[in-house]
Give the backbone structure.
Amino acid sequence: MSKIVVPGEVVSDQPQRMAYTFSDGHKTYATALSLLSDDGHLVPLEGPYEPLVEDIVVGYVTDIRFTGYNVELGEPFSGFLSSRDSRATFRLGSMVQARVINVDEVKSIDLADARPLEGGWLERISPVKVPRLIGKRNSMINTIAQMTGCQVIVGRNGYVFVSFGGNHALAVEAIRMVEAQAHTTGLTDRVAALLREKGGKAMPKAPAAPVHSSGGQGDEAADSDYSPRSARAPQNPNQPQV
């Protein structure tokens, strides 16, 4: 049985290192609204993106400089992509997937290995729900991608690229369902049932190797791995459509 804990509430009577907590050397306290299970497992329900080196992120270009590009990664973060670290050329509004190569003490983010994302739209979900959307061994995101026929690329920062090829609207509906019900069990089965009910394709007997997600884990909040790294932000009206 899980209970909701608020920031500042004790989650352990011992000092522990867990995401979205802090310790005073004696006890451990929540730093975000979370679900706390009887076995001490903490599942955050809200919280900001916490950038780490090697994260795969998704965003869009907001400024072009002589030396590179500013990339919007969701409030309050933006990244800088040096022209030397990118083989592609981007324009204002270009959607990109990139890798975090450096995060300094004020959370300035340097990016590399960027590639363009075309023919789709960026959706925004809470960054703490990203592991749930990816799923254990990419199960959730593969289910959505394969049953809708869409390419779905998830950034650790909470931006999700969904291609217009396939049933785009159904893929977005499934993503929103995952975000809203991320704290519940049996979610993958319910998402698959929704997709079948609304005309999604049948899942292949031998699923293809996962290629649609940015990595990560976390499928069922209570009965399998849910390992958050780090509330839906309002969609930016300047987000590009390609």
The mean pLDDT is 83. The first strand starts at residue 3 and ends at 5.
